[in-house]
Amino acid sequence: MPAAQSSKPSPFPSKFFHCDICGRAFALIGNMQKHRKLHSGEKPFPCEVCGKTFGLRGNLQKHRIIHTGEKLFQCNVCGKAFALRGNMEKHKIIHTGLKPFSCEICGKEFSLRGNLQKHKIIHLSDSVRNISSRKPFHCDICGKNFSQNHTLQSHLQSIHGSDTCQVSCPS
């Protein structure tokens, strides 16, 4: 006996809206239009604290957290706190023991893609592996360089007592 046809409308849209540049599909036209702005390079949303600009208001809102130091999301395994939920979720994989990212040169495995990317630097020749590629984040106050932006931000707060984004970002 065939299944009865439901008179309820499907919760899934029958029509998708596609970005004419990259082809990405969206269920809502508004989401597609917002996405489409990313291709223009336009960044109309500046941070009031450091001046960095963003193409989407939501990305500016996420960015603002670096200036407040708020870390609302905590790992339920080790207690490490994060400003963004996505970063906490990525972090949690280290507790599973899974290491899905491996170096194609030496075979060393990593739980996070970013850790693999940092590791790959050791395989570069000394001429390629210079200070700017290893430590691209520069403190404009004392001149010290850092490999990661969050380390620079911690340095600014603990050493210089600054809660503003005084950083020369990599180009």
Largest sheet: 3 strands, antiparallel
| Main sheet: strand order | 10-9-11
CATH superfamily of the domain at 73-132: Classic Zinc Finger
Strand content: 5-15%
Shape: globular
User: What would you call the structural class?
Assistant: alpha+beta
Which range best describes the helical content: under 10%, 10-25%, 25-40%, 40-55%, 55-70% or over 70%?
25-40%
Helix run count: 6
Order of helices and strands: EEHEEHEEHEEHHEEHE
The CATH topology of the domain at 73-132 turns out to be Double Stranded RNA Binding Domain
Number of strands: 11
N-C termini distance: 65 Å
Can you tell me the CATH class of the domain at 73-132? Alpha Beta
CATH architecture of the domain at 73-132: 2-Layer Sandwich
InterPro entries: C2H2-ZF_Transcription_Reg, Znf_C2H2_sf, Znf_C2H2_type
GO molecular function, one term: RNA polymerase II transcription regulatory region sequence-specific DNA binding
Protein name: Zinc finger protein 98-like
Domain C2H2-type: 17-44, 45-72, 73-100, 101-128, 137-165
Provide structural commentary.
With 171 residues, this protein is of the alpha+beta class. 33% of the residues lie in helices and 13% in strands. The chain has helices spanning 29-40, 57-68, 85-92, 113-120, 131-134, 149-160, and strands at residues 17-18, 25-26, 45-46, 53-54, 73-74, 81-82, 101-102, 109-110, 137-139, 145-146, 167-168.
